[in-house]
Design brief:
Chain lengths: 117, 115
Amino acid sequence: GESVGLHLPTLSVQEGDNSIINCAYSNSASDYFIWYKQESGKGPQFIIDIRSNMDKRQGQRVTVLLNKTVKHLSLQIAATQPGDSAVYFCAENRDGNSGGSNYKLTFGKGTLLTVNP
Amino acid sequence: EAGVTQFPSHSVIEKGQTVTLRCDPISGHDNLYWYRRVMGKEIKFLLHFVKESKQDESGMPNNRFLAERTGGTYSTLKVQPAELEDSGVYFCASSQVTSVTGTQYFGPGTRLLVL
């Protein structure tokens, strides 16, 4: 079936290192992808998004890479800080390009990122 | 600008009781979504409102769940009667119809425990 999933459930890194969180999706028709960060006791917080007509997008300390050939999405966090410790979700929104009403997100299971000082 | 708010933050009820969750979206956001995460599972879509109309309720698990958005502002999600498997975190999100990125902004969630 159609799904968005994650390769690794947990990731532990040292402060200052770069982090890479991976995500696989199965629907080749997916056209919009989002990364969310969820801290304990809070709701998912938007980090960065990318459309299917792009293969890379950069934000502040974060980069999202999209490989449509293998249906793979990754989030890179540069110089990881203790405040980056959280669960990271990738999500898919197939109607993101419609320009009209937004549609439901399909989430992966999440990766727990732990940053060690 | 105030974010999405949800009430209550936590709710503990007994099986068979009724619980009503409330979501206040970001002002001006016509789109309102309900999601939930049960223990050990991914966040799952429940339904989507555009203003006061249900655009998509394909994720609603059964007829014990009733969502409303009277007046197209805040929304309520009622579970009646609650069952053990309804335990989880219920998230609300909102977005602007005209938003280019379609970003959905999430509230902090309501943690529901059915005993």
